[in-house]
């Protein structure tokens, strides 16, 4: 940890990050909190913090967020949970934090007040090699693909155990396109197991999650799916699903749950350093995209094309005095096949910002303008 971070930890938080038992005590709250329990939100201390905050390392931002959560009553000082940003935070801590959040939700909410979706297609297995494919994963375990009937049943039971539930609402077949054999295996085993679980009322709806249109077009003809989790193919930037997938979804009564509505970040703040479809938009973007995406979408354009289009959308939003992010959030909901969208959020502040961007109505004139300028597909509903 660099000296600047250590100094701020000592000065602002009253602890030495190199001494674990002190680091766990959190003896002093940082200046700037406004919770009435702590009379430190006025005077020179706050002014000093305000002057220095721009220079504080990002490593300290996790601390600030943790204390804000605590002040709001979301974390207990008696808890053994170490929040993100703390010097002692690690993979096991993140799992424990998620468990505490899950326990709190189950305790305070009735089951019919929230929807739970989970995925099948992978199993968690013991591993001799540390391999953190997913954040918070046990280093002594790994994940392997398994689209067999028994594999789905085992995956489902293990998910219920981790969730502390006796059923889930939506069960998604996850990424059956990572290997040429996976779709065939899924049709022989996984899909049959999913249908069985729905017949037994263990799940309410069946879905499939992919970031491509073509395989979902094929799966829409299976006749068993209620929804598809589609990532990145119906967004403010890319409406390629209008060609085949969305018409098929409408005719087969399949809802869309949208992921990747920001297209990996380009619809937040477009720049040559941003990402589109999991890959940085530099001169090697197309070659790297072919490695990151199992199947390149039809008519996949150049990095320059996508970036210029994002710039034009951003400028159009500026003319109406709202952010590109707001337009990206609201755009998909005009299509009645879209049930909801999944937005990536890393803090309570981002949750509030996303809700605000969803609720503040964008004038119809804006949508008409970007359609007239051919910045969105002419088939895209806008009201």
In short:
With 383 residues, the chain is of the alpha/beta class.
How would you characterize this protein structure?
By secondary structure, the chain is α/β, with parallel strands linked by helices. α6 crosses α7. About 11% of the residues have low confidence. The longest helix has 18 residues. Strands 1-4-5-6-7-10 form a 6-stranded parallel β-sheet. It has 2 domains: 87 residues, no CATH class; 273 residues, NADP-dependent oxidoreductase domain (TIM Barrel, Alpha-Beta Barrel). The protein contains 14 helices and 10 strands.
Let me know the number of strands: 10
In round numbers, the mean pLDDT is 78
**Range of helix content:** 25-40%
Number of domains: 2
The CATH superfamily of the largest domain turns out to be NADP-dependent oxidoreductase domain
Structural class by helix and strand composition: alpha/beta
The quaternary state of the protein chains shown equals single chain
Summarize the main sheet. 6 strands, parallel
Strand order of the largest sheet: 1-4-5-6-7-10
CATH topology of the largest domain: TIM Barrel
Q: Give the CATH class of the largest domain.
A: Alpha Beta
Secondary-structure element series: HHHHHEEEHEHEHEHEEEHHHEHH
Return residue spans where pLDDT drops below 50 for at least 5 consecutive residues: 12-43, 70-81
Distance between the termini: 52 Å
Beta-strand share of residues = 5-15%
Question: CATH architecture of the largest domain, please?
Answer: Alpha-Beta Barrel
- Overall geometry comes to globular
